[in-house]
């Protein structure tokens, strides 16, 4: 007999670190999702910037089936063809010479931070170990990555956390100058703050960060877990900054929902990960890498990348049109299909109300902190889905505005 599964089942059997909505999606196709009651939703969330090619993408389904019929997993005492093909493509398409595969963005960042410290240890000694990162940044949920991340709430109750980490304000070069030193082994930054409110790096700021790293013999680490693999309209966002990092991380869109992460590095830096210094049981497994290779092949094309820029303009125009009627947004910002709409002071702290109202109207959106609505849909979302989703968003916003005025 099949056991009935409901939202209440979560409260019975799952660790309560999440508070999922009552919606239980059971089927997806492209940028549409259906729940257990067969209610349809348009997906502007993309699984938090993950399903870059939509749900149940037929090409990826075929690749998965083909690889599943060959081999799923090998220990890392051997290599495999899909991993090598994917690594070769990533190095050919980026600044990097070497790749390490992991299972997630947090794992890729963990590897990056360890590599940065190991490189400094090898070349300058143990005193050069400090990492500088930015307030409001997010780099994952491991103990090391929450420590580098610039949001204290994620560290609370888990202290003592790893030491030797400093923070300053994003896009504030003077603060960075004040804390970077000859003890700094790396500066870690997102080219566009994701969880921190969808804030792109000022180009001059990014350039000066690179210069400060060079002056202090520190590595520049770009976290492109959310911004990478076509999300911003280029394969990786660093291409738009005019700055080249020494280490870069990727995940999310890389697997379109299949767990995979990657750390990319120059040859000179990667050499510090000598035999036995780091590893991952599942990292680089054939299934993940076969799917990720297909994702990269599809996304890194003029058609898709130019399409991201066109869809960006459609979103921004639509959000501006909504704002002209309801005056709820302070600023609309972002790159490509990673877009943030900061709410006006009247709704500060209540971005979640718009998210909940949107779900009622059959639309998935995200927040990036309590004040910003975030949109991170499929990179190939049909234009008619954008139009319909924005229409549903307008209804949701109208509802929240009406409720607020009536209160």
Automatic annotation (TrEMBL):
<comment type="pathway">
    <text>Amino-acid biosynthesis; L-arginine biosynthesis; N(2)-acetyl-L-ornithine from L-glutamate: step 4/4.</text>
</comment>
<feature type="binding site">
    <location>
        <begin position="105"/>
        <end position="106"/>
    </location>
    <ligand>
        <name>pyridoxal 5'-phosphate</name>
    </ligand>
</feature>
<feature type="binding site">
    <location>
        <position position="138"/>
    </location>
    <ligand>
        <name>pyridoxal 5'-phosphate</name>
    </ligand>
</feature>
<protein>
    <recommendedName>
        <fullName>Acetylornithine aminotransferase</fullName>
        <ecNumber>2.6.1.11</ecNumber>
    </recommendedName>
</protein>
<dbReference type="InterPro" id="IPR015424">
    <property type="entry name" value="PyrdxlP-dep_Trfase"/>
</dbReference>
<feature type="binding site">
    <location>
        <begin position="223"/>
        <end position="226"/>
    </location>
    <ligand>
        <name>pyridoxal 5'-phosphate</name>
    </ligand>
</feature>
<feature type="binding site">
    <location>
        <position position="141"/>
    </location>
    <ligand>
        <name>N(2)-acetyl-L-ornithine</name>
    </ligand>
</feature>
<dbReference type="InterPro" id="IPR005814">
    <property type="entry name" value="Aminotrans_3"/>
</dbReference>
<keyword id="KW-0028">Amino-acid biosynthesis</keyword>
<dbReference type="InterPro" id="IPR015422">
    <property type="entry name" value="PyrdxlP-dep_Trfase_small"/>
</dbReference>
<dbReference type="Pfam" id="PF00202">
    <property type="entry name" value="Aminotran_3"/>
</dbReference>
<feature type="modified residue" description="N6-(pyridoxal phosphate)lysine">
    <location>
        <position position="252"/>
    </location>
</feature>
<dbReference type="InterPro" id="IPR050103">
    <property type="entry name" value="Class-III_PLP-dep_AT"/>
</dbReference>
<keyword id="KW-0963">Cytoplasm</keyword>
<dbReference type="GO" id="GO:0003992">
    <property type="term" value="F:N2-acetyl-L-ornithine:2-oxoglutarate 5-aminotransferase activity"/>
</dbReference>
<dbReference type="InterPro" id="IPR049704">
    <property type="entry name" value="Aminotrans_3_PPA_site"/>
</dbReference>
<feature type="binding site">
    <location>
        <position position="280"/>
    </location>
    <ligand>
        <name>N(2)-acetyl-L-ornithine</name>
    </ligand>
</feature>
<keyword id="KW-0663">Pyridoxal phosphate</keyword>
<dbReference type="GO" id="GO:0006526">
    <property type="term" value="P:L-arginine biosynthetic process"/>
</dbReference>
<keyword id="KW-0032">Aminotransferase</keyword>
<comment type="subunit">
    <text>Homodimer.</text>
</comment>
<keyword id="KW-0055">Arginine biosynthesis</keyword>
<keyword id="KW-0808">Transferase</keyword>
<dbReference type="InterPro" id="IPR015421">
    <property type="entry name" value="PyrdxlP-dep_Trfase_major"/>
</dbReference>
<dbReference type="InterPro" id="IPR017652">
    <property type="entry name" value="Ac/SucOrn_transaminase_bac"/>
</dbReference>
<feature type="binding site">
    <location>
        <position position="281"/>
    </location>
    <ligand>
        <name>pyridoxal 5'-phosphate</name>
    </ligand>
</feature>
<dbReference type="GO" id="GO:0042802">
    <property type="term" value="F:identical protein binding"/>
</dbReference>
<dbReference type="InterPro" id="IPR004636">
    <property type="entry name" value="AcOrn/SuccOrn_fam"/>
</dbReference>
<comment type="similarity">
    <text>Belongs to the class-III pyridoxal-phosphate-dependent aminotransferase family. ArgD subfamily.</text>
</comment>
<dbReference type="GO" id="GO:0005737">
    <property type="term" value="C:cytoplasm"/>
</dbReference>
<dbReference type="GO" id="GO:0030170">
    <property type="term" value="F:pyridoxal phosphate binding"/>
</dbReference>
């Amino acid at each position: 007999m099949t056991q009935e599964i409901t939202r209440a089942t979560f409260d019975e059997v799952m660790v309560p670190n999440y508070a999922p909505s009552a919606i239980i999606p059971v089927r997806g196709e492209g940028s549409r999702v259906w729940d257990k009651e067969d209610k349809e939703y348009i997906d502007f969330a993309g699984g938090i910037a993950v399903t870059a090619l939509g749900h149940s993408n037929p090409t990826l389904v075929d690749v998965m089936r083909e690889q599943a019929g060959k081999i799923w997993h090998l220990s890392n005492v051997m290599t495999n063809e899909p991993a090598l093909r994917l690594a070769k493509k990533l190095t050919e398409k980026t600044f990097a010479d070497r790749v390490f595969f992991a299972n997630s963005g947090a794992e890729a960042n963990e590897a990056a931070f360890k590599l940065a410290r190991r490189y400094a240890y090898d070349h300058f000694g143990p005193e050069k170990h400090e990492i500088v990162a930015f307030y409001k940044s997010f780099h994952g949920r491991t103990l090391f990555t929450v420590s580098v991340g610039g949001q204290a709430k994620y560290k609370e109750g888990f202290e003592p956390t790893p030491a030797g980490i400093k923070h300053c304000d994003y896009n504030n070069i003077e603060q960075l100058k004040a804390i970077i030193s000859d003890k700094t082994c790396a500066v870690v930054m997102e080219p566009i703050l994701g969880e921190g409110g969808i804030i792109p790096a000022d180009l001059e700021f990014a350039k000066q960060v690179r210069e400060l790293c060079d002056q202090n013999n520190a590595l520049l680490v770009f976290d492109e877990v959310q911004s990478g693999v076509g999300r911003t309209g280029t394969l990786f966002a660093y291409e738009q900054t005019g700055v080249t990092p020494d280490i870069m991380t990727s995940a999310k869109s890389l697997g379109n929902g299949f767990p995979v992460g990657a750390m990319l590095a120059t040859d000179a830096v990667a050499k510090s990960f000598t035999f036995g210094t780091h590893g991952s049981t599942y990292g680089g497994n054939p299934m993940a890498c076969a799917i990720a290779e297909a994702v990269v092949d599809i996304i890194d094309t003029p058609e898709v990348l130019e399409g991201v820029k066109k869809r960006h303009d459609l979103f921004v125009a639509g959000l501006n049109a909504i704002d002209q009627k309801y005056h709820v947004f302070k600023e609309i910002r972002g790159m490509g299909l990673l877009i943030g709409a900061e709410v006006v002071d009247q709704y500060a702290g209540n971005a979640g109300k718009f998210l909940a109202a949107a779900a009622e109207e059959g639309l998935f959106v995200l927040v990036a902190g309590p004040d910003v609505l975030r949109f991170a849909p499929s990179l190939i979302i049909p234009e008619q889905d954008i139009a319909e989703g924005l229409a549903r968003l307008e209804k949701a916003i109208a509802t929240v505005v009406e409720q607020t005025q009536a209160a």
